[in-house]
Amino acid sequence: MLTPVPSRHLIFALAGLSFFAQPALAQEPPRLVLQITVDQLRGDLIQRYSNHFGPDGFNRLIDSGTWFRNAHHRHSNTETIVGHTTLSTGTDPAVHGMVANLWFDRIAGTQFYNVQDPDYPLVGAEGIDKDSEIDPTQRAATTDGRSPRNILTSTISDEVALHFGPEAKVFGVSVKDRGAIAMAGHAGQAYWFSKSEGRFVTSSFYRSDYPDWVSSWNDSGKVAAYAGTDWALSGDASEYDFGTRDLQGWEVNLPGWGNVFPHNYGPVDNKYYTTLLTLSPAGDELTVDFAKTLIDAEGIGQDDITDYLSVSLSSTDYVGHFFTPSSLEAEDNLRRLDRTLAQLLDHVDQTVGIENTLIVLSADHGAADHPGYLKTLGIEAGSFSFDRLDTEPGLVRLKADFGASSELIKNFSNPYLYLDLDEIAARGLDLDEVEAAVAEELEKLPGIAKAVASSKLRRGEVVGEGVLNNVLANYHPDRSGNVYIVFEPHWFIADFDGLTVAAAHGSPWTYDTFVPILFAGADVPKGTVYRRVETVDVASTIAAYIGTKPPSGALGQVLPEIMPK
Question: 385-446+448-487: what CATH class?
Answer without folding.
Answer: alpha beta
